[in-house]
Structure formats: C-alpha cells, structure tokens
Amino acid sequence: MSNTRSLREEHQVILKVLDCFEVALTRARADGVVTSDIFAPFVEFFRGFADRCHHCKEEDELFPCLNACGMPRDVGPIAVMLHEHRVGRAHVRAIAESLPAADDADAAARQAVLQHGFAFLEMLRNHIFKEDHVLFDMADQMVEGSAAAALADAYRAREVSPDYQQTHDRCARIARELRERYGSAARGTSP
After folding, report:
1. 72, 139, 154, 190: most buried, per Cβ within 10 A?
2. Is 156 domain-assigned?
3. Helix/strand/coil for 69
C-alpha cells in the first residue's frame, strides 16, 4: 500500500473545493459582491480540512518520517512544503480578517479577499501538484518496512481521534455543500 494514498485522496477533495473557490472568486470579482456568506465556508474548509486534518498528517507524521529516512527538513522538498503551508495559512488568515469589513462594503477589504483568494488558489494548486508528483513519489520510494507500517499506524491514530473526526466530518459536509452550490460551474467537477 502507498505511504501517501490517503494524502493523495485528500488532495482530490481539496482540489474540488478549490475549483468551487475559483468560481466564487471569479463571480465576486465580476459582481463586486464579497461577503462572509460566500467566503466563510471556504475559510472554514481550508482551516479545518486542509490545515487541521491534512497538513497535520504531513507535518506531524510524513515529514518527520521522511527526515528520519534521510531527507533533510531545513532544505529541499520538506522545507519548501512547510514554507508553502505557512504562506497558505497567511492567505487564509488575511481572507478571514478582511471578511467583516467586506460585509460592510469596504472596497479595500473586498479587494484584499479577492487578491489573497486568487493568490491562495494558485499557490495551493501548485503546491498539491508538487506534493503529488515529487514529494509523495519520493515518500513512496523512501519509506519502507517498519517505517511504512509506523506511518500508516500514525495516520490511523490521527483519523480516529474525536477532534479529527468531528473536524473532518464538518468539513466534508461543507465540501459537499460547496460542490452542490458551485459544482456545475467548476472545472472538472460535476454537481
């Protein structure tokens, strides 16, 4: 079994939500309507599913395992991925912080949501591509035997914790609602 299969599957969920996010951003830019009603669910999904559920498995389980197998943490792929996780968090934080003023029709806040939203969209798609086609391929080759078994056990331990399950279930529901709302207009996504 692949050391990264569950992470790759989670990427597919994130990519579908990113397609919906692109539709929402494009509509908001065209209509000039940027509100919490539109963007708060995306913020909740990105903070909950992408960061708390997905990134925790990468940062707390996969990356240390790769480091123990000989991949340096401070340079190379792990360092780049960690940096991009921080950049992504900063974009999502900026969006969340701008939403209350955007709700009050503040033009600068609306622009900040759009600017950070489009930057986050591009960054995260590129980030996922690099993980799926470089880092995860390396992980599937490097992590073997007892290290692979320990990594699989660590993923399972995270996934059965009540906090993880609650966050995962809430965010899966948000993802379904976003796909229902934007799916037919999103690229590669069915309603």
Report:
1. 139
2. yes
3. coil
> Tokens 């993923």 correspond to what residue?
155
Over the stretch 22-62, which tens digit does the pLDDT of each residue have?
Answer: 999 999 999 999 999 999 999 999 999 999 999 999 999 99
Q: At 93, which CATH number? A: 1.20.120.520
In angstroms, the CA 33 to CA 105 distance is 9
Which residues span the domain enclosing 91?
A: 5-185
| pTM, two decimal places | 0.93
- Which residues does 159 contact at the CB level (< 8 Å), separation at least 6? 6, 165, 168
Q: Indicate whether 160 belongs to any domain.
A: yes
d(CA 107, CA 90): 20
